[in-house]
Amino acid sequence: MTTSFAVTEALRAAVDDRLQEFVDRQRPLVGAPELAPLLSAAKDFLAGGKRLRPAFCYWGWRGAGGDQDPAILTAAASLELLQASALIHDDVMDASDLRRGLPSAHRRFEALHEASGWLGSARQFGEGAAVLLGNLLLVWSGEMWRTSGLPPEALAAAQPVHDHMRTELMCGQYLDLLEQAQGGGTFDSALRVALHKSGKYSVEQPLRLGLVLAARERSEWIDRLCVDYGHKVGIAFQLRDDLLGVFGDPVETGKPAGDDLREGKRTMLVARTVAAASPAQAEDVRRLLGDPELDDEGLARLRQIIEDTGALAASEEMIKQYLYDALGALDHAPLTPDAREALTELAVAATSRRS
Amino acid sequence: MTTSFAVTEALRAAVDDRLQEFVDRQRPLVGAPELAPLLSAAKDFLAGGKRLRPAFCYWGWRGAGGDQDPAILTAAASLELLQASALIHDDVMDASDLRRGLPSAHRRFEALHEASGWLGSARQFGEGAAVLLGNLLLVWSGEMWRTSGLPPEALAAAQPVHDHMRTELMCGQYLDLLEQAQGGGTFDSALRVALHKSGKYSVEQPLRLGLVLAARERSEWIDRLCVDYGHKVGIAFQLRDDLLGVFGDPVETGKPAGDDLREGKRTMLVARTVAAASPAQAEDVRRLLGDPELDDEGLARLRQIIEDTGALAASEEMIKQYLYDALGALDHAPLTPDAREALTELAVAATSRRS
């Protein structure tokens, strides 16, 4: 196992296998034929994905001296169940049609309802089924974590971090709903939401989980690394997300071009654009942002404003700066050398990704 | 502590206190002013309730020889968090306006959105916030259970039951969605859904949790009691629920009169009515059941049909029979005498309740 393991197929394959095994283990409970659509949707939503969260967790573990116990891969893989749950619920809340180029969960169940000629509202059935599927994956993420086979004292040490992460995720998503509803937030408020909703549970907390599992306790250097590296990579990760939501290639993101603009998402990128816009530009943003019918011309206009106000360049600059600071933090932590190298790779991968 | 503790204010007060304490313990995480509506909604939805699930769990514990360790009350109270989560999500899925006489969670957040003059769809905000609140309570139920202070070996023995219950609940709710969508189910299919969706996690599993916590293992007599008593009380509980949804007094149920009929719920009561209906009665049921605008006259007509077909009397008869069988099962289990008495009281309370 070399340091390139950080982002290679090997980790992905291990995570895939553990998820598959876990879901199969549930078959005695969820094996009834009527539940098949729930199970196949779960499997499809767990396939693919960048597996960044398991990688941060795994390399936290290795970085604090954890051995090659295969149980860590099971524990790390469980974070994908949490992530899949959050995405499925997120798509219901945003009424998004697509996820990774495929119909979102609620659209999938809506289509099942329509194709089956069932009674009542197909939309309502689709949303209900997606909420339940998300709940199932949320419950399973906790179960898979606890039954990973890691030593009880390791799990006990990390459990408060795990609990904290889950509460923080739900609250962060609520803050995000609020930010969109209140509109016109500042860069700082958008940053706060991004950090709570996504940054922390994408990078900082998975890393902290791995570190605390191996060290059997939270310690000062762990908390410092989680802030100085994890926090910063998390924000840069989210800044990249903002850019992909506006400039991303639909073929790579699996989402329609400019989806965030059509949804009117109040991202850090948008906050910065609005703050720097001329009155004419601001008027165009007000008119176009959040228009569900936004066409290619409107999309091009918004992209132009984001460029012309300097918001695009400023975001790229910030990503670079956060990444630079984060990598510096790695030098000061008593990490194993291979973990340091892997976390360097991961920080770059998380902030320069194209999907 | 006397056997009348089973259904007295003392248990309710203890459960209330533990829930209050737990939510307050989360305040450092969820204390931001913007999150206040989430926290106050959580508190309101946890207030009241019949506390039947904690009572079954508590008396299972005592029945298998558990002592008066106050930690059992915390573990038992955590079941109310799961229940509140399920009700909040259920109301979103059914688009219900009321819960216990107050606005349902999604309507509450919808009203907050409207009163605040926020951007976007108030309905979408309300539903999103309610999904997140339900998630938060779901996550908290697991955390409160694990951190109850019960001995680790007791928790370890009961954890598979706990995991099983949560998966079963989500799958049961999906089966319920399916049953409503497919319509015209038989009594047997409605019974199966009722058992999986509600019966098991209302009675059988809370009881099993308490028994296994105290016994430190699943054993034959525990499983037999959970089926012969728990199963049967669960079904009778749900049959009573069906009757309350049609004939219940709105002042006591906190739901509009005949709410289940207006929603078109395919309950055991409805299945039995349809099976025994004359062609003219069947035609009226088809026309009126599930009509959201169902008026007093239509409601009266449906009630009349339910009576005239004998479905009402048959349901009351079944409740009596299930209760009789369940109480018989108590005699054969090696329970402590006070638990036997309390479980007798609880079975009666669960199946003769008026709300």
Automatic annotation (TrEMBL), chains A, B:
InterPro entries in UniProt: Isoprenoid_synthase_dom_sf (IPR008949), Polyprenyl_synt (IPR000092), Polyprenyl_synt_CS (IPR033749)
EC code(s) of this entry: 2.5.1.1, 2.5.1.10, 2.5.1.29
Molecular function GO terms recorded: (2E,6E)-farnesyl diphosphate synthase activity; dimethylallyltranstransferase activity; geranylgeranyl diphosphate synthase activity; metal ion binding
Gene3D superfamilies: Farnesyl Diphosphate Synthase (1.10.600.10)
UniProt-listed Pfam families: polyprenyl_synt
GO biological processes: isoprenoid biosynthetic process
EC supergroup of this enzyme: transferase
Cofactor: Mg(2+)
Keywords associated with the record: Magnesium, Metal-binding, Transferase
Family the entry assigns: Belongs to the FPP/GGPP synthase family.
PANTHER family, per the entry: GERANYLGERANYL PYROPHOSPHATE SYNTHASE (PTHR12001), SHORT CHAIN ISOPRENYL DIPHOSPHATE SYNTHASE (PTHR12001:SF85)
Listed name of the protein: Geranylgeranyl diphosphate synthase type I
Source organism per UniProt: Sphaerisporangium rubeum
